[in-house]
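Listing S7. Sequence submitted for prediction.
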Amino acid sequence: MRGSIPGAGLLVLALVTSCSDDPADVARNTAEARQYADAAVSVVPLDKAGNVPTDSTVLVAARGGTLKNVTVKSPRGSLPGVLSADGTQWHSRGTALPGTSYEVTAVAVNPSGKVTQTATSFSTVKADKSFAIQDLQPNKEATGLTVGVGMPIMITFDQPITDRVEVERNLVVRTSKPVLGAWHWFDDKTVHFRPKTFWPANTRVRLDAHLEGVRGGRGLYGKQSQTLRFKVGRSQITKGSTLTHHLTVRRNGKVVREIPMSAGQGGEWKYYTTSGVHLAMSREPVTVMTSPGIGPGSAGYYQMTVYNTVRISNSGEYVHSAPWSVGSQGYSNVSHGCVNVSPGNAVWFIDNTLIGDPIIITGSPRKLEPTNGWGHWQENWKQWLKWSSVKYFTTESL
């Protein structure tokens, strides 16, 4: 009788059991284990972070699942955001408010449908002072909301701005027709926008100044945001020469009026009409004009009331009614620097001019300075960009 080996049956059973671990079963078991793992959520800024810059982006990411809902709330409002196409990442848009606590809530779901909720918080840096828009043109009161093709967007702030890049990148221009343009800083409180070339006729324009919470300098943050809407009207461009003594008005490329004129007589520099691309700055039914740089009792002093005037610079130049010089209009220059036209032509011109219409004068040795009124178009594109912090861009679609 042959002897038996103790435990042999157990050994065979163990061997059989180990051989049954098929690789496919192992993979399936591993996948099932993963299927039930909770989705992991990470948030930046980190929980309880303080003195977070207002322009920091809130980032929320899910691992092992997708994001179903993300909110970033404060007592003063919420931050909007964008979810990635695959649902695994979310980032905020816009600027947070200074000195504000935000609560971040993120809801994620793993592949088996299990929900994970994560809550964090952070607080932003405090503001020492604020800035706001003091003046914005065009506007309904000063210019009307339908303007000429040369009209710039002009912003004046109530505080000096040192972080020009941050402010400029939050001034968003949208148009009904694509326009290439740029902002231009004239000083630390003044920034203007103009296209590379005149606006296309009948363009609708919207400025979104997303300035609330935006950093304008050390400890300086925007007080509020502002929106401006206006329309560019028909294209009307007036060209005149101090040598031919005529103005030609073209509307949408067609001549609609020929106007005899008399320009500055010269002699003294201040009595020359400036050459250059002027813009219609105001329409005034009545204007009281005084001699530049000369007081009462001095030789050459004058003060007179003129009618139906269109201002074209800050140095006292107008296109206006001048019945006293009708005989010289179309033949010689006899004014003190203004563009004289007949009473009838002055009425027509003021009635048919939009603020921002280009009025281009040539032939004079005195050039219009870029800072004399709205002499923006006196700078070529390269010169204009020199004073832009973010350079040129194509406007967003409206």
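Caption to Listing S7: primary sequence and predicted structure tokens for the chain studied. The chain is about 10% helix and 40% strand. Confidence is low (pLDDT under 50) at residues 1-20.
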